[in-house]
Amino acid sequence: MVEVENLNKIYTVGSKQEKVLDGITFHIQKGELVLLRGVSGSGKTTLLSILAGMEKPSSGKVLIDSEPISKLPDIHLSHFRAKKIGMVFQHFNLIENLTLLDNVLVPLVANRVGLKEAKEMALAALKNARIEHKKDAYPNRLSGGEKQRGAIARAIVAKPSLLLCDEPTANLDSKNSQSFIEQLMQMHKEGQTIVVATHDPIFETLECEHRIIDIKNGKIV
Amino acid sequence: MNSLFLNNQVIVYIFSETVLALLTLIIFVMALKFIRYWDFNSFSNFQLKLEKEANLVMTIATFLFTLKLLLLIYFVYTIDNLSLIVPGAMCGAGVISANDYGMTLLFVKIIVIFGLLLFLVVNHYDLLGKNYPLFRFKSWVIVTAALLIFGEFYLDISYFTNIDTSVPVSCCSALFGNLEGANPLPFGLDIKMLLVLFFTLYFGAVVALYLESRLLSTLLLALFGVIAYYSVVYFFGTYVYELPTHKCPFCMLQKEYNYIGYLIWGSLFFGLYFGFIWVIMSLRSYKLERIKLASILLLTLFVAINSFYVANYYLHNGVLLENIK
Ligand SMILES: Nc1ncnc2c1ncn2[C@@H]1O[C@H](COP(=O)(O)OP(=O)(O)O)[C@@H](O)[C@H]1O
Ligand SMILES: [Mg+2]
Predict the structure, then answer these.
(1) What sections of B38-170 are H helices per DSSP?
(2) Which of A19, A59, A64 to mutate against chain B (most B CBs within 10 Å)?
(3) Which of A12, A55, A72, A124 would staple A49 via disulfide (CB 3.0–4.6 Å)?
């Protein structure tokens, strides 16, 4: 499902080269829940961005569903992303002047789903994320927990092969974090492949089968 | 003497060509690098860097080649305008033949445009594939086109710096007229045979394209190109001008004739280009229906416009130019 081999990412700032990812190798099977743990600055976001096809590696192999996503020409890449990848971010990244329902519709528009079917899928996703009752609200009227559930609905609406979450609980209180974890376990049970990057200790108590990848200074430890 | 080189339009033209030639030099070098090192199956730092560079280079090439297409039209327009300055020239024919470089330049341009168009098509289909299936081929197209562009640039400069405005040039009646009585047509043809060939080859080329015969298409398109050129200059053109003695490929570009020359030559050349591009792409197992159709339609348009001028003249005057004594 996900194959990463000898992945390196070097950022050049001025004349200085910084190796942010260093020889990362791992495989993820379909349906696995993977926790990517590491302190701030260890390279988690960079790794997720590469998995999402938003950043290009400096070298190394990244295959998702057997496609070398770092090598796809742009038109294929955006198509691939819209179809295969769902993302949940620390700051939720909902579009402020769209209602929650419209926010969830956005990925479907990119996938060219017909409007009627798209609405049904969006409502189902909102229901799944337990935020259906706020579908007509604008993001600035939602609490952090509600925004995150909206973001989850948007991430899963197009039924992505791979769900990537970057510090999903960083802006949530413990009650909402716990609720997020329950949703995560629910999605895992339904067979969704998930990677969560986090340094939140709340995940220590995760009560379902999962795998931990620890990352330090851009290396797996 | 060389007041012509300082003509506004010539300055704009030469300046643009210089900038484009410099950009071409960059993509030429990059394309050579691609040909040497490209290995899509590698995930090395170097290959991933090449892929990023390829994105940039192909974008520049697309931009560049599109601009060059537009610049050709500007070139023809400039040449036509210069006939007001160059003594003795009544149209582009005189200006182009003001020195030995002119005709070669025009000929090279016609080939260059083919290269540019081929690149745009190949690049388009390469990017539609997931693994750059035509990458090496399109790099070769860039290299070849770039070499031609360098040659063209040399001819550009040589041509425009060698027009002496104090020496009168011949105009089209002297260049294309039948003054000495010698037959200007190729293969010893007369007008009647020329026209028979014109329509037969048109029909044959269209059928060959339609039936997707590569060899036959290539052959018939090439022959049709040659015959079409002579047919326009020595027959159809005279109906555009409504004057049996006016034999010229350039005057029809002027306002008096509604700029119809752009359409006539444009439909012919682009019809041929698309036909050849269809052949080349089908050798790479791409069956480009729309390119094939574009070729057939443009060639048909070309034949239709030419025939229209003859028919129109006949309907108005009840007589053909050849029969006016
Ligand atoms: N665009 C960039 N340019 C330069 N350095 C960057 C860039 N993005 C991230 N970095 C650096 O890469 C390192 C890892 O960052 P990141 O992947 O965001 O870590 P994490 O998500 O684990 O906190 C940090 O030192 C950061 O400063
Ligand atoms: Mg981060």
Answers:
(1) 45-82, 92-96, 101-128, 135-161
(2) A59
(3) A55
